[in-house]
């Protein structure tokens, strides 16, 4: 009980330092029947109306962090690790399953898997949740980083802070890094087998994933031992919408072959004036030097380097990732444009 009390006191002190009391942070301010923060948002699309799932954790009028999951086609669930860090700092979390993902509607129509349409979806979610430039922080991880940057290119006036986590801002550069750097780290015999399967388009071959899991995923996606991968990660990836993933990314994580194959925003990064944090991991599928360059090209950039991190740096370099994310958000909240991480 002594340790519990000490922990509670520490939590209270930290939250109060954020400018909001624990009672206010955890108070449910919604009207009507309480849903634990869940709100289904109706979105208008060229194919009609659909519903996407959101869930708010905490209540801070000044700091609201909307999370864009990766994949494409995974779910919000792998972000659940943030609940162990951000609420104690008074940061409001907003989970969101994009259309076709997790708890949201799935129209099962590949014409709907379009980057411009997803940008408008994010904007409709923002409006429904009443987020604005006084409080709206947008974090996109992996594919979500592409979506976050594309959103910022059109709607940065709605943002208070932007976080691009583990995603290069040029898919051609990403493909080049996979071929020129990551592929060379494979055992040549293993790589030859992988390339042979890909050349045949035999992605359903069980040997393909048997080769990728120990030689690629365990080294570059999440460096925690495969048999100990965090349950939220397994749960999220286990629900991956394959149609969405293959349409946008292509059939392999090892390179890109879908609709995103030519996406490149490097030349447009200087247009981004909103405070921006770029996050890179040493062992990531994304070049950490490229991620640092992103922070230098935007007008008000900060860079968070995770020396032990891979693509899921929020898990395999968790303390560094979370401390840097919190420092950035709190720095921007206090008026800093460039936060030294």
TrEMBL record:
Residues 65-317 form the AB hydrolase-1 domain. The keyword Protease does not apply. InterPro entries: AB_hydrolase_1, AB_hydrolase_fold, AB_hydrolase_sf, Peptidase_S33, Pro_imino_pep. Transmembrane segments: none annotated. One of its GO terms (molecular function) is hydrolase activity. The keyword Hydrolase applies. Keywords: Hydrolase. Belongs to the peptidase S33 family. This is Proline iminopeptidase-family hydrolase.
């Amino acid at each position: 009980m002594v340790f519990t009390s000490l922990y509670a006191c520490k939590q209270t002190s930290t939250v109060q330092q954020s400018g909001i009391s624990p009672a206010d942070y955890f108070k449910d301010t919604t009207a009507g029947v309480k849903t634990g923060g869940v709100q289904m948002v109706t979105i208008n699309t060229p194919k009609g109306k659909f519903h996407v799932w959101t869930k708010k954790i905490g209540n801070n009028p000044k700091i609201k962090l909307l999370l864009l999951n990766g994949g494409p086609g995974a779910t919000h669930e792998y972000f659940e690790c943030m609940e162990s860090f951000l609420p104690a700092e008074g940061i409001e979390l907003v989970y969101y399953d994009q259309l076709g993902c997790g708890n949201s509607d799935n129209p099962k129509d590949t014409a709907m898997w379009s980057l411009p349409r997803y940008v408008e979806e994010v904007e409709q979610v923002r409006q429904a949740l009443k987020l604005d430039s006084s409080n709206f922080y947008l974090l996109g991880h992996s594919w979500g980083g592409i979506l976050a940057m594309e959103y910022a290119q059109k709607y940065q006036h709605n943002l208070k802070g932007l976080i691009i986590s583990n995603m290069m801002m040029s898919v051609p550069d990403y493909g080049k890094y996979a071929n020129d750097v990551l592929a060379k780290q494979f055992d040549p015999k293993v790589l030859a087998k992988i390339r042979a399967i890909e050349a045949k388009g035999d992605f359903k071959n069980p040997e393909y994933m048997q080769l990728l899991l120990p030689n690629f995923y365990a080294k570059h996606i999440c460096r925690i031992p495969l048999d100990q991968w965090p349950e939220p990660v397994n749960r999220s990836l286990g629900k991956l919408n394959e149609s969405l993933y293959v349409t946008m990314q292509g059939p392999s994580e090892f390179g890109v072959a879908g609709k995103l194959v030519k996406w490149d925003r490097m030349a447009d990064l200087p247009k981004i004036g909103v405070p921006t944090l770029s996050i890179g991991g040493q062992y990531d599928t994304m070049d950490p030097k490229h991620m640092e360059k992103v922070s230098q090209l935007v007008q008000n950039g900060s860079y968070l380097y995770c020396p032990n991190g891979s693509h899921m740096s929020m898990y395999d370099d968790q303390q560094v990732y979370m401390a840097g994310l919190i420092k950035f958000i709190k720095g921007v909240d206090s008026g800093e444009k460039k936060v030294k991480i």
